[in-house]
Fold Reverse transcriptase zinc-binding domain-containing protein.
Amino acid sequence: MAVILMVLHAGSCTNTVSGPRSQNSINGRLPENHCGPLTGPRHRSPRAHSVSKTLSRKPSSIIAQLRTDASPLNAYRHNIGAIGSPRCEACGAANETRAHYVLECPRWEPYRQPLHVACRKVGLFGSIHLSPILSNPKLLGPLAGFVEATKRFD
Ligand SMILES: [Zn+2]
């Protein structure tokens, strides 16, 4: 808000200086005197690639596994014969698939809010599908946060 006000203020000053009244001074003061310099702090927007650099190794490894559907979730582990049941141990659902873990499991619902907010920011509304979440670079950070918060793979 402060930056916006400064910009508006500077704009009005510029108009005053370049306008027909720029030669007038009130009580000997120059119009430039009330116009502060534009030296406010600027916020740098983070770039997409810097998000993946800040991911810790564990969540990015899990995300890579989720992308290939070879994650340590029970549906996959059951598929390869590592365990006897694909059931979700967190909620008892029949299959702990990627979609179940990321989108559906009620056990992890409290940790999904940041991911939902990030999805809306990139234009994903309503029922969200797994593939854009796993592929959009802007959602990697929030997805990693979700993976970490659930501690499902610890
Ligand atoms: Zn579940």
User: Anything to note?
Assistant: Confidence is low (pLDDT under 50) at residues 1-28, 30-41, 43-51. The two ends are 42 Å apart (CA to CA). The pocket of zinc ion is lined by residues 88, 90-91, 93, 100, 105, 107 (CB under 6 Å). Residues 55 and 80 are 28 Å apart (CA to CA).
